[in-house]
């Protein structure tokens, strides 16, 4: 013991200054490096926070919409008499807008013609949709007066939410002082309310922000995800299994491998061009169709799926393969009975990540004409539709205040989907983590 | 040690075509050379693996003993760059012949690996998998019986009979290795190859496996690669010493360990190299 302490003491005594200075420097360098790391993470988190705050701030108002309650007269003489014709199609030509405008005039009693026009503009040009739906659902209302909450114009909505200020001079507002007094009147009469904006999720494209929604885009995206899932999963897994387990290791397979890795890094718009050239110009599939979008996104997702699946297959220990081969399983049996099931969680994760990637992709869809104003829901993947990120992209180019909010709201919905999909992937990976 | 051994006359480096009348060569290697790409790993190996005996393959690391073992059931086939020349026969039939189906061969020549590698499935499924893919049973009852007898032969039945549905990977290392032996037995092989089956196990588990090998010898031909010379001496009747890809000496275990003819063998078993 004593000799040991002597030795250590002598070390401390003989080389003190030099070593301790160097040690200090080493520790300082380590602390500095840690500080850089923490700093980098903080900066990253800060930007993330700023992004979320600004998006949520801008987007939250879009989840509320303002509606005005009006007592609308439904005079029987304006409607078809035959009950069989009292359908959405049969009543398409009923002057709905006139009925609504009459109702608001009755409510607010305009003094001049200009006042009347200003009143009309308090309501969304698409307010009639709400009224029509009610009457179609219950034709017995015809001939009576009905009290309905109708969609207000985007400007009214902005004033009520406070996203547009009343304090700026009238000339710099898209809403007049006269209209402001009407709004106040309606508010006093308890005919104005904010409610959750189902329109945002149900409606298709529209020129008016208050009646524009991501419904069609969601359905379009859903169809595309289905196409991607149905194609990328079998093709990607088959390709990965062949390359990883069966393919001979020679120059050709090396070339293929390098190319697959490179394809994963190709700008997505290139896949859009490919889709345009092959699927639309050559195969002559319809433009704007989710089927084509799905095909293009499949091409884009395949490299990701193949690479991740190969990694999952590689992670299965060779001893499992040997065990199967050693008791006389064929190669095919050893792969399908043992290797693939063990790699399944990894493959599943890769597919979900690939789908999430495809869901957020915009550029290739622009090339194949999915940047279209589509009002009606696609019934099949061959009907025109748009996609969620493309819808956001289109809204972002529009100047109206309401579209700015809807852009951010769309981003929030998209991010929610992406976070959800990634969370599922993480959960599955944790749950089925390797058990050997 | 046993009656069988005393019957056998002492062997020379080149094994005789037929030993004593009671012994038949189950597998036979003639001029076996193995190449990994350009590199030759085995040089003209001639060996007879006797029926119902334990043949130990010993030698320093990288001497080719595992390579040779893996030639015996063509596990080297999965290595792309591996090439085997010469003849290896099982019951006088060339196992590298085109007519031989490798899947069928591996059912006849089973293998137990260095690291216990049960499938991450239930104990029952581990055993039942082989008979199932080979279609050895017609119904569940037969399969149950195979599972039970295999586990009994591997000395594992008493320990696991109440938890056949629990995962095989949940067993201890020694139990896992016996499970792997049971799995190999389940497809009714004639030869069992063991590639350092005890290297990952503690002494107690090793002793159990060695006892098991003694019992299995009554019904199976066994070839075992081992790094432990004590183990080779304990379990085997014949020992083959490999060095740098050559089969240096092959003969009765007792003779190899007490009276080696080659000085390299002498050097290895006395611990001078290896």
Oligomer: heterodimer
Number of helices of chain B: 11
Shape of chain B: globular
**CATH architecture descriptor of the largest domain in chain A:** Orthogonal Bundle
Radius of gyration based on Cα positions of chain B = 18 Å
CATH class of the largest domain in chain A: Mainly Alpha
Class by helix and strand content of chain B? Answer: alpha/beta
Beta-strand fraction estimate of chain B:
15-25%
- Main sheet of chain A? 3 strands, antiparallel
Sequence of strands across the biggest β-sheet of chain A:
2-1-3
Low-confidence stretches of chain A: 1-7
* Head-to-tail CA distance between termini of chain A: 46 Å
Q: How many β-strands of chain B, per DSSP?
A: 10
Mean pLDDT level of chain A: 88
**Biggest interface: chains and residue counts?**
A-B, 22 and 29 residues
- Give me the CATH superfamily of the largest domain in chain A: MetI-like
What structural class do helix, strand and pairing data of chain A support? mainly alpha
SSE succession of chain B: HEEEHEEHEHHHHEHEHEEHH
Helix content of chain B: 25-40%
Strand content of chain A: 5-15%
């Amino acid at each position: 013991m004593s000799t040991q302490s002597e030795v250590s003491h002598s070390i401390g005594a003989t080389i003190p200054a030099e070593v301790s200075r160097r040690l200090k420097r080493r520790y300082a360098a380590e602390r500095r490096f840690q500080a850089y790391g923490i700093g980098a993470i903080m900066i990253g988190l800060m930007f993330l926070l700023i992004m979320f705050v600004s998006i949520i701030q801008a987007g939250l108002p879009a989840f509320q919409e303002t509606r005005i309650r009006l007592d609308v007269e439904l005079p029987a003489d304006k409607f078809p008499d035959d009950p069989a014709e009292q359908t959405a199609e049969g009543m398409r030509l009923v002057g709905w807008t006139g009925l609504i405008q009459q109702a608001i005039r009755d409510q607010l009693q305009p003094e001049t013609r200009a006042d009347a026009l200003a009143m009309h503009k308090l309501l969304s040009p698409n307010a009639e949709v709400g009224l029509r739906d009610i009457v179609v659902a219950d034709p017995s209302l015809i001939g009576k007066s009905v009290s309905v909450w109708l969609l207000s114009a985007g400007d009214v909505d902005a004033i009520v939410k406070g996203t547009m200020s009343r304090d700026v001079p009238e000339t710099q507002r898209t809403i007049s002082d006269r209209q402001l007094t009407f709004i106040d009147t309606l508010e006093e009469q308890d005919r104005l309310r904010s409610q959750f904006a189902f329109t945002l999720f149900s409606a298709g494209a529209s020129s008016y922000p208050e009646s524009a929604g991501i419904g069609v885009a969601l359905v379009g995206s859903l169809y595309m995800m289905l196409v991607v899932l149905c194609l990328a999963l079998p093709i990607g897994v088959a390709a990965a299994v062949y390359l990883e387990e069966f393919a001979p290791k020679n120059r050709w397979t090396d070339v293929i491998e390098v190319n697959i890795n490179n394809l994963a890094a190709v700008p997505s718009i290139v896949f859009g061009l490919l889709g345009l050239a092959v699927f639309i110009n050559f195969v002559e599939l319809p433009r704007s169709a989710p089927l084509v979008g799905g095909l293009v996104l499949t091409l884009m997702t395949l490299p990701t799926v193949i690479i991740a699946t190969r990694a999952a297959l590689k992670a299965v220990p060779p001893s499992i393969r040997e065990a199967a081969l050693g008791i006389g399983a064929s190669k095919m049996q050893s792969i399908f009975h043992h290797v693939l099931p063990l790699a399944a969680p990894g493959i599943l994760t890769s597919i979900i990540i690939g789908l999430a990637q495809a869901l957020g992709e915009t550029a290739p869809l622009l090339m194949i004409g999915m940047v279209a104003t589509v009002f009606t829901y696609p019934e099949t993947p061959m009907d025109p539709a748009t996609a969620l990120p493309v819808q956001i992209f289109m809204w972002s180019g529009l100047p109206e205040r309401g579209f700015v909010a809807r852009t951010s709201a769309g981003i929030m919905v998209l991010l929610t989907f992406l976070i959800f999909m990634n969370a599922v992937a993480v959960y599955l990976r944790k749950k089925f983590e390797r058990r050997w | 040690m046993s009656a069988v051994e005393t019957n056998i006359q002492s062997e020379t480096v080149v094994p005789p075509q037929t030993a004593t009348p009671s012994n038949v060569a189950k597998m036979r290697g003639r001029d076996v050379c193995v190449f990994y790409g350009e590199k030759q790993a085995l040089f003209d190996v001639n060996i007879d693996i006797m029926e119902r005996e334990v043949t130990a393959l010993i030698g320093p690391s990288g001497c080719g003993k595992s390579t040779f073992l893996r030639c015996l059931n063509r596990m080297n086939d999965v290595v792309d760059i591996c090439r085997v020349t010469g003849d290896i026969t099982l019951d006088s039939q060339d196992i590298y012949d085109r007519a031989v189906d490798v899947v069928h061969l591996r059912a006849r020549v089973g293998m137990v690996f260095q690291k216990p590698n049960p499938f991450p499935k239930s104990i029952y499924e581990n055993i039942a998998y082989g008979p199932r893919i080979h279609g050895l049973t017609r119904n569940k009852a037969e399969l149950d019986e195979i599972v039970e007898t295999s586990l009994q032969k591997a000395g594992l039945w008493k320990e696991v009979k109440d938890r056949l549905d629990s995962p095989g990977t949940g067993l201890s290392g020694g139990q896992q290795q016996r499970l792997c032996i049971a799995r190999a037995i389940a497809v009714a092989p004639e030869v069992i190859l063991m590639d350092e089956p005890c290297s990952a196990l503690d002494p107690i588990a090793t002793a159990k496996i060695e006892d098991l090998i003694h019992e299995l010898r009554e019904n199976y031909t066994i070839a075992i690669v081992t790094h432990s010379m004590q183990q080779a001496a304990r379990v085997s009747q014949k020992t083959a010493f490999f060095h740098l890809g050559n089969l240096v000496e092959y003969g009765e275990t007792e003779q190899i360990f007490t009276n080696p003819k080659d000085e390299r063998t002498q050097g290895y078993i006395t611990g001078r190299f290896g």
